[in-house]
User: Fold UDP-N-acetylenolpyruvoylglucosamine reductase from Pseudomonas graminis.
Amino acid sequence: MTLNVQHDVSLKPYNTFGVNVRARRFAEAFSDDDVCEALAYSTRHDVPLMVIGGGSNLLLTRDVDALVLRMASRGIRIVHEDCDGAIVEAEAGEPWHPFVLDTLAQGLAGLENLSLIPGTVGAAPMQNIGAYGVELKDVFHSLTAIDRHSGELREFVLADCEFGYRDSLFKRQPNRWLILRVRFKLSYSATLHLDYGPVRQRLEEQGIKEPSPMHVSRAICAIRSEKLPDPATLGNAGSFFKNPLVSAERVAAIKLTHPGVVGYPQADGQVKLAAGWLIEQAGWKGFRDGDAGVHALQSLVLVNYGQASGEQLLALAQRIQADIFERFGVALEMEPNLY
Ligand code: EPU
Assistant:
């Protein structure tokens, strides 16, 4: 028995919004055995289980009447290697960005565009994290999860995961699968993705003509740091809203009054609109109500200036949603998980 269950614990250090709610029970899982113990504890004490990683995609609006289990398992290993590349496995509790740097240091390409995303390896598949033209699904090999209903281990390959834009089977069935470790298919010969937004331009400005994956990673870290607040200094959960998919007719209607609307046509004829653009146009950029606000440099990011409660942040998000719907006829969907 190694699981150390504590009672009545503040979750402020465990969510990047820095919201101060309390958990009825709290424990950290360093191994598969700890996870099994937590599942047994939850059943034995009839207390629900809430699993968290880095707490970077989470908005807590009340005290958590559950056993909060923070995944803290560590370990990175190559499980298969040939001349082209390797399959690298990481435990769920590995912090994401140091893991990306570790693979780059081993000469493996594939994760560079996903640099500096907060959170953990185990949380990354939940919402199919993505940035600068690459999503987790593009480099995903497989994962091991535990079925919380039966306690059995199950392997998932790409086709099983139903990955979509910030979406997956695991996100849609949150209380069913607990991700233990994830494997990525990485390559020794880099195919770089430089065509999203300012990445190529940034490298050119630095005089880098033949970028390595490490150059790309550094450029993306610089771009992200300029626009996205560091949760260590300003509470936030990254993009708070998803970029909405709308019909071409809706875009045409918006263009009548806002010819500069930013959108990306999709293969199915729909258009993915830049939610940050809509929110900025509606005048919310830099807005602040008490300690809850909209980031001054990136309207998709809600921030906690200090003492904002989850309820206050949620109320602000709902005001923005209602306003964007009224102005543009577009329903914005929240990205973080709400409790
Ligand atoms: N824009 C504005 N005003 C703003 C923010 C954005 O006009 O305040 C416009 C930009 O000018 C640009 C467009 O919106 O033309 C897109 O902006 P950006 O490239 O910064 O990306 P994003 O759509 O705001 C998405 C992801 C980010 C990811 C970046 C880069 C979502 C919800 N967000 O943001 O992911 O880092 O692209 O790939 O898809 C996250 O999910 O937490 C996250 C940070």
